[in-house]
Amino acid sequence: MTKSDRPTAVLFDLDGTLVDSNDFHVGAWREAFAEAGFDIAAAAIHGQIGKGSDNLLPAMLPDVDEKVRQSIGERAGEIFKSRYMPRVAAFQGARDLLLRVRDSGAKVALASSASGEELEHYLDLLDARAIVDVTTSADDVEHSKPAPDIFAAALGKAQVSAAGAVVIGDTPYDIEAAAKCGVRAIAVLSGGFPEAQLRAAGAVAVYADVAALLADYANSPCPQ
After folding, report:
1. Residue 74 located in a structural domain
2. Which end of the chain is more exposed for a tag (fewer CB within 10 A), N or C?
3. Do 69 and 126 lie in a common domain?
4. Does residue 139 carry a pLDDT above 90?
5. How far is the C-alpha of 193 from the C-alpha of 19, rounded, in Å?
6. What confidence tens digit (pLDDT) does each residue in 29-61 have?
7. Burial of residue 28, with CB atoms counted within 10 A of its CB: 0-12 exposed, 13-18 middle, 19 or more buried
8. Domain count, the chain
9. Residues 61 and 69: beta-carbon distance below 8 Å
10. pLDDT tens string 195-207
């Protein structure tokens, strides 16, 4: 990779990438569905984690009225924030990876399908307010991942081109959203999606987790 090819910004997903929250989201969704009378298996819900509620709910309940879906989405958010979010922990190496990217001279962006409230919580959890240059959440855009809106907004805020950025995420929806923006994506397996699915979505590299990526940083597609 030549100097001109090296990325000048890294766009990080949060849930399942920097923080260990995917199973908690599954739990919150399952409870919200059950309260509304829908018995949906945890595995089916997990397959949609990484999307915002605007995309997850139509996939899970395609024949259900939009008002009912909206109510379920709001309830899932309430359950997650009250019962699960305080239990979320940062993955080992998460903050150190943010620091490593910053120390390379590249911009650090958090670009998540999480709500703005969740993003603010995770900034504090990661002790990353002094590290992160740019944030975007589901509250900033019309459509969540796998739509490209969140990454497109992050690119705009960071004032970098698609060619000058790389995404790090844990779901195929991160990888698909990045591809729609023309951004290369690195995948981590910490969100529970299989490597084959992440590579099929277009990941240029796959690591077990952010700690493994940090350990192999010098050989990774990240800014050096």
Report:
1. yes
2. N
3. no
4. no
5. 15
6. 999 999 999 999 999 999 999 999 999 999 999
7. buried
8. 2
9. yes
10. 999 999 999 999 9
Average pLDDT value over all residues in the chain: 95
141 and 130, same structural domain?
yes
- What is the average per-residue pLDDT within 139-144? 90
Give residue for tokens 């805020």: 157
> Do 98 and 143 have their domain in common?
yes
**β-pair type (165-169, 134-136):** unpaired
3 pLDDT higher than 70: no
Domain that holds residue 57: 22-87
**Among candidates 118, 170, 178, which has minimal Cα distance to 147?**
178
Residue 4 has pLDDT above 70, yes or no: no
Which residues have a Cβ under 8 Å from the Cβ of 42 and sit 6 or more positions away? 26, 27, 30
The verdict on 51 and 103 lying in the same domain is no
DSSP state, 51? B
pTM over cut 0.85: yes
Spatial neighbors of 64 by CB under 8 A, at least 6 apart, are: 57
Q: Assign residue 51 the CATH number of its domain.
A: 1.10.150
